[in-house]
Amino acid sequence: MNMKVTQLAIGRFHHFHLARQLERLGLLEKIYTGFPKFKLRDEQGIPKDKVKTFPWIHTPYMKRGLIGIDYWKWLSEEWEWLDMQVIDKYVAGKINHPTILIALSGNGLHAGKKAKDHNGYFICDRGSSHIRFQDQILREEFSRWGHTFRGIDSRVIEKEEIEYEQSDLITVPSQFVKKTFLDQGIPEEKLAKIPYGARLERFYKVAEPSTKKFKVLWVGSVGIRKGFMYALQAFQNLKHPNKEFVVIGTVEPEMRQLLAGQNLDKVSFLGLVPNAQLPRIYSTAHVFVIPSLEEGLAMVQGEALACGCPVIASVNSGAEDLFEDGKEGFILPIRNPAMITNRLEQFADDPELRQKMSVAAIERVKSIGGWDSYGNGFQETLLSLIQGY
Asked: CA 329, CA 317: separation in Å to the nearest integer?
């Protein structure tokens, strides 16, 4: 394949994993990001001259919470829109020859058009559900908990849907996400499902859970979208003499209000922890819970499985593309704390079941092959696109 890939992702997300894979396969031309270079020092495996940063709008936007600007919702919305537009147009100005542009959805309308104008291709990479499904389910969920979701900026929805139409291909990470696109009328032939991998060199089993305590683990944003209240309710209803719920991640503002007055006995909020500590935390947990309302394919699931920690996940987390229900964990419908409690009780009451699933989890993730399988899948997709089959 002669044509190389230009990547555009305003943040990091999974795109630097993809860039490493494309470099391994000899396909990477450049990756553009809104992150500053000093924040990318831990991104190994990509030549420095292929990483192009445009941090002038995105970096201060990400720091807006430190000065309280995030409470001015209208300003955050305008800033986010400007952020996405400027980097898109900036990269469009850099494209002057045939290339395959892989752009994170919402970031690539102008750059994608420019790539196609130069006889290249435009791939819109969507890491979450279809933007209209995402907007609808978040409106519903916030309302269920007595909060108002401002909704996704209508300009962002419009831009993304034009990208869906304009792109040669839309890549998605899970069957759940693919279904939301099909339900919105996107033709199946325009969709390519390529599940994410896990960093096996970083995440692996290093310890055993305690036999004296039953530890439930949460890693990720503590918010309404992730379904944290369902996990908390399930834990509260779990009858166990020595249980613990370890919560790692930033607590979102709406969740702070919902947690006021809740029974948080035996719940430990640790905030953010260094990545180097996560393998031990995953390894010593009996079960990992993630009942998200919508995701692409939550990568923390792969991290937990790689450390031998079985997972209880919602179907909307993309779990079906990572493990099998009843083998390495359990996959449940959304908004069902009673079912989560039931599965927690199974793990607590049957250590042999948990151990069996722990072994199966490690074998499953190893069989997937880490991020190499993701890179190989993308290479096959690129070849199919260029060769027209």
From this structure: 13
Crossing angle for the helix pair 351-368 and 337-349, to the nearest 10 degrees:
110
Beta-bridge mates of residue 100: 5, 121
Residue 315: closest CA among 299, 329, 294: 294
Contact (CB, 8 A) for 172 and 178: yes
Residue 333 lies in a domain: yes
**Largest Cα span, the chain:** 66
Dist. CA 116–CA 182, nearest whole Å? 25
Same domain, 119 and 224: no
CA distance 114 to 122: 9
| Number of domains the chain is built from | 2
Tens-place pLDDT, residues 3-60? 999 999 998 889 999 999 999 999 999 999 998 888 888 888 999 999 999 988 888 7
Residue 303: CB partners within 8 Å, gap ≥ 6?
Answer: 198, 199, 203, 219, 278, 282
Residue 234: domain span: 214-368
Closest CA relative to residue 3, chosen from 111, 89, 102: 102
User: Which of the four pLDDT bands, split at 50, 70 and 90, describes residue 67?
Assistant: low
In this structure, are residues 130 and 181 in contact, taking their beta carbons and an 8 Å threshold?
yes
For residue 332, the Cα-to-chain-centroid distance in whole angstroms is: 19
CATH no. for residue 188?
3.40.50.2000
Alpha carbon distance 359, 348 (integer Å) = 17
In angstroms, rounded to a whole number, what is the distance separating the alpha carbons of residues 193 and 175?
Answer: 7
The pairing of beta strand 51-53 with beta strand 100-104: unpaired
